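Handout, section 4.2: multi-component inputs.
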Amino acid sequence: MDVARLKENFARVAMHGDDVALFFYSDLFLRHPETRDMFPVSMAAQRDHLLGALARIVADVENLPELTDFLQELGRDHRKFGTVADHYEPVGASLLATLAHFSGADWSDELAADWTAAYGLVAQVMIEAAEADEKLNPACWDATVLSVQMRSFDVAVFKVATLQRLDYLPGQSVAISSELRPRVWRFYSMANAPRDNGTLEFHVRVIDGGTLSMALARSLVPGARLRLGPPVGTLVYDSWSGRDVLLVAGSTGLAPVKAIAEQISGLPAPPRTTLFFGARDAGGLYDLQDLEKMSAAAPWLTVVPCVSDDADYAGERGTLPDVVARLGVWAGHDVYIAGPSQLAVATTALLERLGVPRDRIHVEDFGWSEP
Amino acid sequence: MTVTSSTSRRLTPDAVQAVTFPSVRLGRRGFDEEHVRAFCDQVEAELVRLLNEKTALDEEVQRLRRRVLGIASEEDGAGYRREDAHIQAVRILSKAQQTADNYVADAQDYSRQLAQDARRHRDEILAEARSHAAVMLEEAHSEASQAAAAAMSEPPAQPPADRTELEGELAYLRTFCDVYRTHLRAYLDALLRNVEEWERAEKSSIATARAKLPIHRQLP
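Output:
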């Protein structure tokens, strides 16, 4: 396999941008119409995913350990979409047809052989990872909605019970899909540590024009069915460090952070923990009552609500990084941050300046899929 | 300006998308970054379009060349035609998909605008309510102070000093209460009317939007 030739060919094909993915899916759906039902109505985001994943695979083709991790994750992740081993061959055929089409006169038997071999390896790693996962976990978890509460103008909190046990670490998230918006998946963090009765809580902020968030917040009723993908995410608590803990949550970034706080409360000797919860206005502090109840029962926990855009607010005012910087010395803490990415970036930069080593700052990370 | 291309020296759409410009030092003149970005987007789209046109033309050339050279056998000819038909079908399906994508994007844009309007409306109502409450308090205060002052200044028959003071206080509180309650009632009434009006407007606008948007009928 001539890796340099593959890379060069891909770079040339990729210049055609969105048209490449458009051609690929049209070719696939024409040859195998039954696969169309696995995708949402609008394919724009899907095409970006495909091109992103292809570019990543081609770029990392010489870095095998990392590429293998990525492909195994991708293979497992595709189970929730209903992907099975039989789907890989048609996809390979359409991929080859697409590459041939956009290579034009550059296409050759050698290139075709190289691409076939490369795709074969990719498919094999993905299929094997999916099959190994099949022995341990269902493809996705069916869940029933128990309750839905609109907590503020644009935040809803809902509770679900899964039919099968869903094991996860506090701070992790799952992809959710609802019959209200078929085959659209979005990631949400569990807002509680695992419970004996297996119920899960989620916090949804309505994104203006958001496909799934609006449906979940406005149209979900008790009894509704949801599908949950496998738990993912690296924002997990390191209970062995022994250091004090700083938790920073912006808006519904509170969900994973609250799950971690609950986990800490279950430890025999909880470390001193400070939780900053920030929103634009007082109405955005949608879960403050619960947090205050939590801290009243836990001498090790301090909760600091703060508000950035409301001059009349009686408590701490300012953006989260500002308030965090103003109220403490954090160099010796383990830090967990979740919220809008702008906030995560600003807070991380600030804490590094204040002397917190980068490897002790944990930020919510949804991996390659969109949050 | 840094332009890097992994493939060749030629300018690629990727390179246009990834180009970065160092920012000018404070006090010096420079181009508006947004304008430069917008222009780059335009250049990128144009490059992609040209590339795709070139591919389509290359294909056409190949097809014509085959025709001119004469098709080797009947079987091959059928093969070419089948291949052409498939490419045509791919093109048509791609167009249909893009149309669907645009409809969904339009609907999303529309709902984003509605939601943003509602949010702005809500912020305005809240701000107005706050300033109204402040004015009401102020008014009640001043009216009650006047009433208290009046009560104190009335010459009572042999009242002890603290009794006068208490009566003054009482008059203040009573008036404050009255004024505040009246204002509050009027204000709440207005607010309720406002909410009802808003609900009616929302219902009718959703109904007209449904009627206008073809997407609700065409897409599942």
